[in-house]
Amino acid sequence: MGARAQYVVVENGTWKRYFSHWAANRVVDDLLPGPAAATRCFRANREIDEWLDDVWCEGAALVDHDRRNLLWFAFADSWADHVAARAVLARTWPGWDVRFAHDGMGDLTHHLGLGRDLTRSPGWFETFEPSWYADLEDSEPWSVVSVRLPDRSVRAWGSGREPVEHLADGPGLIDLIVVSPATPPLTDMPYGGVHFDPGARTVSLWAVQTAAGVHNWPLPGWENWDLEFRGDDHIHQAGLLPADFAFPLRPVGAALRQLGDGLATPPTDSASIVAHAAAAPGPEGTTPVINPAALVPHEPVDPTPAELAELRATLDQLVAESEAY
Questions:
Q1: For residues 51 and 78, what is the distance between their CA atoms, to the nearest angstrom?
Q2: What pTM, to 2 d.p., does this model score?
Q3: 3-state secondary structure of 288
């Protein structure tokens, strides 16, 4: 099927859409060098006149030069990878409002004044009968579910479902969770979490991935409940978790280094190499021959050596800062 990506570039009051069949897993890499490099990269793709939907689009970015807004989403391999990417973008896009598009394509179309449902069919958010399965062995769950009990204490469980998927079951899910056996303490950060407070009739949700539907509250079954959507900020839930089920925060230095490993090496100055080779005398009785195809030219849409050097310096600084704590 491919990892489809969609890009939108807004400039001088107009916007255009571009498409890549394979680049969804490179959205972050293409954004890291900053606005100029990202814009060149996106405009080099095929221009299209249609929108992908949340099913087909696995990564996207909207670069609004007029309002200096960046909206993006893509799957991160881990919590640390997402946090690392956010840290770099905060420095390589100075003066820009950089936001993760938790509502997927809905955030992009909403930014353009087209509403959130342009790419979604009516009734797209499916609901299900409440069901719960406690994995008694997995210490690296996809998400964490916590519930405030009538005595005001909080219990928490690991879950193999995405945070927003728990909302598809309605409040009836809470009754199943609270009688569930305990799950193992966490050994790695989850992709997100959801906290239920039945007494206050509130739901709190955070995620480092898309959570389509969070801006369509109340979702079916959650009428008369309030949603506290906290973006990718885990701190609120972290403060609620019992001591024996705490989030195991990890330094993001390794994730930052991995971002650096994915950077291309700036090409050499091919012009000086050609000039030097052409001036060199050949063996007696021969004529020097240069094959320009053997040299690797710099692609105009790639980050320039200067842009890559600045990005590497930013990564080095962030790694040093992460290791200072």
A1: 28
A2: 0.87
A3: coil
Helix (H) or strand (E) holding 174: helix 172-177
Report the alpha-carbon distance of residue 295 to residue 276 in Å, rounded.
Answer: 13
Provide the 10 A C-beta neighbour count for residue 197. Answer: 20
User: What are the E-state strand segments in 22-136?
Assistant: 46-48, 59-64, 69-74, 97-100
Q: Which 8-state DSSP code applies to residue 167?
A: G
- The mean pLDDT value for 19-46 works out to 96
In angstroms, the first-to-last Cα distance of the chain is: 43
Go through the chain and tell me how many residues it has.
325
CB atoms inside a 10 Å sphere around CB 98:
17
DSSP code at position 69? E
Cβ-proximal residues to 104 (8 Å cutoff; 6+ apart), any chain:
54, 57, 60, 73, 210, 212
What share of the chain in percent tops pLDDT 70?
Answer: 88
State CA 295 to chain mean position distance: 35
Q: What angle do CA 120, 121, 126 make, to 5 degrees?
A: 95
Residue 63 backbone phi and psi in degrees, to 5? -110, 105
The values of phi and psi at residue 142, to 5°, are -70, -40
Among the listed residues 267, 252, 265, the one whose alpha carbon sits nearest the alpha carbon of residue 315: 252
d(CA 68, CA 83): 21
Q: Which residue type occupies 26? A: R
Question: What's the pLDDT score for residue 323?
Answer: 85
The neighbour count for residue 249, using CB atoms within 10 Å, is 12
pLDDT of residue 27 exceeding 90: yes
> Which residues have C-beta within 8 Å of that of residue 274, sequence separation ≥ 6?
290, 292, 295
Neighbours of 305 (CB within 10 A): 14
